[in-house]
Design goal:
By secondary structure, the protein is α+β, with helices and mostly antiparallel strands. The chain has 12 helices and 5 strands.
Length: 314
């Protein structure tokens, strides 16, 4: 719309400027006496008006851009609610989950499991804060004593030096666990690991294979664009955001379940097929063969970095 107004203003300025020139005025007077010229002027005005009205009635629709940080805020908030629904912890009614830090949410199950390892008395950890800091109140103990030391040591061992961990005593002898992430912010590739693990488990596939496919399709860009209306992190014509990871996992699982080889299954995700190319003929394309080999080669990298095989058959 802005460009349309800008070009209209430039066009109007040129007409006014040229119309003031003596030579142009004389040519206009001569041409205006010709009937055909008058008809062409009328036709031009009508066409220009039709184009302007059409553009006004049907403006260009802006493509939707996915807000990646907001995407993982929503995912993280849902993950916290899942833990609450399964009874693994309680949520304080005033808890703000508008912008939970994924680097803390992703390790929340590990923290709760560690709590249960140290604390044998049946109490429920209560999550009271989840933004840039994770705060859990351990209610039910008047004297936590050495349990605080044991829990702190265990969490430091499991979480590493990228997390600050402290346990202190507040009012009514309530012991409060505070965890802050002080490392480098996670990139989208790291943030995708947990969604990939979850959907891989649901579809009985190798999460390392799915991660490698995503890496070589879009390099974890949720706004990636391809040919033939393909878009998103897996260049599909359906779904958006993390939904495409679920769709891709289902598709990969179905292909493997019917006996298609890993190579042929991976080749169906090849993003650069031209018009008339068929996925089943991917071996005839050096580029497609190289792409498939790269995907399969990086599977080992993702396994070594924590994305382990869920089943031994694939």
């Amino acid at each position: 719309m802005i460009f349309g107004v800008l070009w209209t203003a430039i066009f109007a300025f040129m007409i006014v400027y040229l119309a003031k020139q003596p030579k142009i005025k004389n040519w206009i007077k001569v041409l205006w006496r010709v009937r055909r010229w008058k008809r062409w002027v009328v036709v031009f005005v009508v066409i220009f008006a039709a184009i302007a009205i059409t553009y006004w009635k049907h403006p260009v629709v802006e493509e939707k851009v996915i807000d990646t940080p907001a995407l993982f805020y929503d995912y993280s908030a849902n993950a916290v609610h899942k833990m609450d629904s399964t009874g693994k912890l309680k949520l304080e009614p005033t808890l703000d989950l508008s912008k939970p830090k994924p680097e803390l949410v992703y390790v929340l199950p590990l923290i709760v499991n560690s709590y249960n390892e140290i604390v044998s008395k049946p109490t429920m950890p209560v999550l009271v804060r989840m933004d840039n800091n994770l705060v859990i109140e351990m209610r039910g103990y008047k004297q936590f004593k050495n349990r605080a030391i044991l829990l702190t040591k265990l969490l430091k061992k499991k979480l590493g030096n990228r997390y600050n961990i402290n346990i202190d005593v507040g009012e009514n002898s309530i012991h409060t666990l505070r965890v802050a992430y002080i490392g480098k912010p996670w990139d989208v590739e790291q943030l995708c690991a947990l969604p990939v693990l979850e959907t891989s488990l649901a579809n009985n596939i190798d999460p390392a294979l799915l991660m490698s496919i995503i890496k070589h399709v879009s390099d974890f860009d949720f706004n990636f664009k391809g040919a033939k209306d393909k878009r998103g992190i897996l260049l599909l014509t359906e779904g958006e955001g993390l939904e495409q990871i679920n769709i891709g996992a289902e598709r990969l699982g179905k292909l493997l379940n019917v006996g298609i080889s890993r190579e042929n299954a991976v080749a169906t995700f090849y993003p650069d097929y031209g018009i008339g190319d068929k996925p089943e003929n991917w071996k005839q394309s050096p580029l497609a063969k190289s792409w498939v080999n790269q995907v399969l080669g990086d599977v080992t990298y993702y396994r070594e970095n924590g994305l382990h095989i869920i089943t031994t058959s694939r």
